[in-house]
Specification:
heterodimer; A: 166 residues; alpha+beta; OB fold (Dihydrolipoamide Acetyltransferase, E2P); 2 domains; 3 helices; B: 251 residues; mainly alpha; 75% helix; 0% strand; transmembrane helix (chain A); CcmE-like_sf (chain A); cell inner membrane (chain A); signal-anchor (chain A); heme binding (chain A)
Chain lengths: 166, 251
């Protein structure tokens, strides 16, 4: 390789390398802020190496799995409350008044945005559903995981309020 | 070892090679696209959780996959353009960028359309979505920078350097769902390839997806070849070989 090309190659690669290192350090420093949500464990026990607890009144997002059997609904309104659990033992309570996404059900991953009103209670203004990277036909899901997911349009409701048991 | 590459620094040689390659990308590409789409939309089973809505994956994943793949292709062209100052490599940046931008836009748009019924939102500033949006702006930035200079070769150099710096974003897009908590789920396909795990997608869904991914690659490559040949002809229009080529096409 002739010396001028070699020089250009070295300069280019060092610029790209320097930008990569700078970006890496920046993302590392900001890593806690890039997380979209707190896990229930992080809300109860604190987040990061310093175990910082979120403050009461703080607006935040929490993400976890809806604990089966914990969903409570109100017959007269859209009010719903449920427990959320992460990979650990800790659980937080989420209260929400509004329309839930179609994928919402017990055991489902969700992300709720709202205000922390007690150390483990969040009043949500928005509830989003997560889904995992598994895709399979309904028959296989029933066989493998014992899940029978009924789309909301086909769910049978006894009355306007009772949907939680499904 | 790289000696076989040398003739393609000459625009005419690249043009001839592209002409020869084009049918090998276009014909199987269009065929596979038709097969893949019919298979995916009509014959693949519905998902246990998302029902029919999941079918948007057959457009979303190939577009997102190759929005990154073509960026890496553009980066290779940019490196050749900046270090070896080969004109055909500079034009290759210009040929790839709009195709990549369109693929990125498709992935963002289908993602939003998918997100609304499943997640409950069109858009969320989560790490994966934001990084992909930055990729879209990078493509547009490369195009804008290329055109921003009076002298085209200066523009090509600047666009090439931006392309190379932008490669930093590619691993961020890919690993964002592992490094941080995101609304976006983790990857289905690359996990199976890189960690040799059993794919977390039933085979009767996975195969049409694989066909669609190949089809997108072939069709997008054919479009890049067409665009590159256009760029070459546009700049070489005064050369005898290009004149002869254009006359031949007229008849």
């Amino acid at each position: 390789m002739n010396p001028r090309r070699k020089k250009r190659l070295t300069i280019t690669l060092s610029i790209v390398g320097a930008v990569a290192i700078a970006t890496g350090l920046m993302l590392y420093a900001l890593s806690q802020n890039i997380d979209l949500f707190y896990t229930p464990t992080e809300i109860v026990e604190g987040k990061g190496a310093e175990k910082t607890l979120p403050e009461i009144g703080q607006r935040l997002r929490v993400g976890g799995l809806v604990v089966p059997g914990s969903v409570v609904r109100n017959d007269e309104s859209l009010y719903v409350a449920f427990h959320l659990v992460g990979s650990g033992e800790a659980e937080v309570i989420v209260e929400y008044e509004g329309v839930l996404p179609d994928l919402f059900r017990e055991g489902q991953g969700i992300v709720a945005q709202g205000t922390l009103v007690e150390p483990n209670r969040i009043v949500a203004t928005e509830v989003l559903a997560r889904h995992d990277e598994e895709y399979m036909p309904p028959g296989l899901a029933k066989e493998l995981k014992g899940i029978e997911h009924v789309p909301p349009s086909q769910q049978k409701y006894n009355n306007a309020g009772n949907g939680g048991a499904l | 070892m790289w000696r076989w590459l040398h003739p393609y620094a000459k625009p005419e040689a690249t043009y001839r090679l592209n002409q020869k390659l084009l049918p090998w990308f276009a014909v199987p590409g269009i065929l596979l696209l038709v097969i893949g789409m019919v298979w995916a939309l009509l014959f693949a089973p519905a998902d246990y959780q998302q029902g029919e809505s999941y079918r948007i994956i057959f457009v979303h994943v190939p577009a997102a996959f190759w929005s990154m793949g073509f960026y890496m292709g553009m980066a290779i062209a940019a490196l050749s353009a900046v270090v070896w100052q080969i004109r055909t490599a500079e034009w290759a940046i210009l040929a790839i960028a709009p195709i990549g931008a369109v693929l990125t836009f498709i992935s963002l748009f289908t993602g939003a359309v998918w997100g609304k019924p499943m997640w409950g939102t069109w858009w969320e500033w989560d790490a994966r979505l934001t990084a992909q949006l930055i990729l879209f702006f990078l493509y547009l930035g490369v195009l804008a920078l290329y055109a921003a200079f009076e002298d085209e070769r200066t523009g090509a150099k600047a666009a090439g350097i931006l392309t190379l710096i932008g490669t930093v974003n590619i691993p961020i897009i890919h690993y964002s769902v592992y490094w941080w908590n995101t609304l976006h789920q983790q990857s289905t396909i690359s996990k199976a390839i890189t960690r040799l795990e059993k794919p977390s997608m039933a085979p009767e869904m996975l195969w049409p997806l694989v066909v669609c991914i190949f089809a997108f690659m072939l069709v997008a490559s054919a479009l890049v070849l067409l665009r590159l040949n256009n760029e070459i002809l546009k700049r070489e229009v005064r050369r005898p070989w290009a004149q002869a080529e254009l006359l031949e096409e007229k008849h």
